[in-house]
Amino acid sequence: MALSSAMKKRFDSKQYKEALNLFDQNFEISTDSTIDMAIKACTISKDYKRGIRIQQRLSSKSRNNSYIQAALLCFYLESKDIDNAMHLFSSITNKSNYMYTVMFKGLITNNVAEKVLDLFDEMKIDPDQFNLSILFNLSILFNACAVLNNNRAMKIGKKLLDEMPQNYRSNNITSTSAINMLMKFGDVESAERIFRSIKAKDIITYGAMVKGYVGNEMFEKALDLFEQIHLSLTNVIYTIVFNCCAKLCNDRAMKIGKKLLAEMPENYRHDNITSNSAIGMLMKFGDVERAERIFRSIKAKGADIYGALMNGYNLNGESWKCFKVFEEMNEKDIIPNEIVWNILIGACSKSGMLHHCQYIMNQIPLNIRNKIRTQNALIDMRGKCGSIEKAMNVFNLVVDRDTITYNAMINAFALNGMGTQAVELYRKMPNNLRDHISHICVLNACSHAGLLHEARTIFNEVSLKTESIITTMVDCLSRLFMFDEAQKLIEDYEKTNTPSIVMYMSLLSGARNSRNSNLSEKIYKRMKTLFPNAREGLVSGIVLLSNIYSSLGKYEEAKHFRSNQIEELGVKVKVGLSWTEIKGHIVQLKAHDHSHPQSTESYAKIDRLKSKAIENGFIFDSSWITRSLNENETIKSVLCGHSELLVIALNLIQEPAPKFIQVVKNLRVCGHCHEFTKVIAKIEQCDIVVRDANRIHHFYPNG
């Protein structure tokens, strides 16, 4: 009686335990109906040991009771005991459709959808014998085929759909499952046909269709259909459309996404999944403040919500905020999941600060640290922080290396100027693991190390030369001032493809380094003609070309060209910033910055370094000055006011004899700062690592 009440009222775990204790005491006089309820109670209360004990005490009569058999199947599958579920199911001679339904649902939940198709093959359904139970199974089978999405699943799923009687196609649950399956197969047209055939479309059917478009990267179609919905929206629809707007991220998507968010009912704002997607969307839009407001409004925050916020900070160049969010999670005893740990590792990669990297790495649980996804992220992180030896240590620990493992290590070598090592690892990498990213990483390594012969050899070996691969080869040739060959590659590419602005930027960057103003002007004019709407790329081109004019002493020409062209585009030039870590805090400065409390001491330190450098024969190269001098300015004061030198000086006054200084800059390091940092490292007998927008520079005490 107590057990029956527990089942009807859905007692808490303590009350279930009391009821089951009473059942144990009266087991010998229990009926099959009571045993059935007891097994169901064990399933609900997740009491696996007791459920097994009940199963072991069953009489042969009870073992053959179909209700008890179905209850045991549910119990095993809920307990993730697939082997016992399969063994019991195979022993049942009279399998009902309900038992198949239980097995199908349980196997999908336990991520073994392949076994669903194995069982389906045993059913041998006659198409003339369709009934409501089989109809329900069809929905589950379509879901299983969608999850698997392989050749076998496609064959079975489409055959089932073809054989399904016409009168069952009006069932929304089955039709929606079929739409979801076809969309997963990439068969959008067939899904659209089924959708059009449904007379009474409900919100779930619309949701499956919109989600299918998003899954097939047909974002505009997804929004077109969404705008046709005149039904009450569910939290699922809000989530799907927010994700769609985040992926599309154009003016239309921003307008729809923000309007939808403003109109969303209050009760959906407490749904973590919907709020998660809203935060992700706003972060993609660059609306960090609004995303933060939504985050703060959520009362019961889980790890996923914190992850969405941190991922947004990474996207918007505010990775340092991730560490504050992580501290909040620790204070509130919220345990990061694998996704959150990988986002934090990504934040370390972007910040580039070794102290933060080690702090985060020390807290990652061993079971997550040993997963290949995390190990790959750690290799990338170590490489981007300039700690190449530790990146190699992680690489050597990976047992079953995949494509990403090799690519991360090759890229780490490339970023740190170790071209030869990158080529060696690329050659050791199994051919079946190489992909286009592998080719790009190794060619990039050759480009930065000036390994032309190796680059040409690898480039010629690549059968499918993508835009990115050709761009990397153009960059390699341009760095070595081999402009004719680089331009020939671009011309050949454009015979069969749309022009790429990145290729022209690589060419222009090389022309800037060679101070070839004629070639630079031709390249920029070509870019304006080919890419009139590519504002960000054109701004970078304007900066490079104006810098060439400045390097040749044409300051007025550079000034007018830069201001006129940028005004015409209506965009802002990215401000150069450098940051470093001092006493556990990130300090960020721009050129000629006086905002730091110790800026007076920093500039005094730079003056002393200038004097020592001059004593050692260092010459300050005015060609790296990009504007005319103001009153009271000198070549030395302008060049030594660059942000990377200011943060180096700040490190030196904080700790008079540091052994290691680390700097990250969001733009390229200029030639003067590169040479001057060599001298500083020698004067101060200190290792200095500077990561700029393209690579990592290591400066040693030997100069």
What can you see in these coordinates?
The chain is mainly α and 703 residues long. Helix content is 68%, strand content 4%. The protein has a 5-stranded mixed β-sheet with strand order 2-1-3-4-5, with helices on one face. One of its GO terms (molecular function) is zinc ion binding.
Query: What is the helix fraction of residues, given as a range?
Result: 55-70%
Q: What is the rounded distance between the termini?
A: 86 Å
Strand content range = under 5%
User: What is the radius of gyration computed over CA atoms, rounded to a whole number of angstroms?
Assistant: 32 Å
Question: With helices defined by DSSP (H or I, 4 residues minimum), what is the helix count?
Answer: 40
**Parts with pLDDT < 50 across at least 5 consecutive residues:** 127-133
Report the structural category. mainly alpha
Instruction: Say how many strands there are.
Output: 5
Which geometry do the CA atoms define? elongated
Average residue-wise pLDDT: 90
Biggest beta sheet attributes: 5 strands, mixed
Output the strand order for the largest sheet. Answer: 2-1-3-4-5
Write the layout of secondary structure elements.
Layout: H1 2-9, H2 13-25, H3 32-45, H4 48-57, H5 60-63, H6 66-78, H7 82-91, H8 97-109, H9 113-123, H10 132-148, H11 151-163, H12 172-185, H13 188-197, H14 203-215, H15 219-226, H16 235-248, H17 251-263, H18 272-285, H19 288-297, H20 303-315, H21 320-331, H22 338-351, H23 354-361, H24 366-369, H25 372-384, H26 388-397, H27 403-415, H28 419-428, H29 436-449, H30 452-461, H31 467-479, H32 483-494, H33 501-513, H34 517-530, H35 535-551, H36 555-569, E1 577-582, E2 585-590, H37 599-615, H38 635-639, H39 643-654, E3 660-665, H40 671-684, E4 687-691, E5 696-699
Parallel strand pairs: 3-4
Antiparallel strand pairs: 1-2, 1-3, 4-5
Helix pairs in contact: 1-2, 1-3, 2-3, 3-4, 3-6, 6-7, 6-8, 8-9, 8-10, 9-10, 10-11, 10-12, 11-12, 12-13, 12-14, 13-14, 14-15, 14-16, 15-16, 16-17, 16-18, 17-18, 18-19, 18-20, 19-20, 20-21, 20-22, 21-22, 22-23, 22-25, 25-26, 25-27, 26-27, 27-28, 27-29, 28-29, 29-30, 29-31, 30-31, 31-32, ...
Domain DYW: 617-699
Protein name: DYW domain-containing protein
InterPro entries: DYW_dom, PPR_At4g14850-like_plant, PPR_rpt, TPR-like_helical_dom_sf
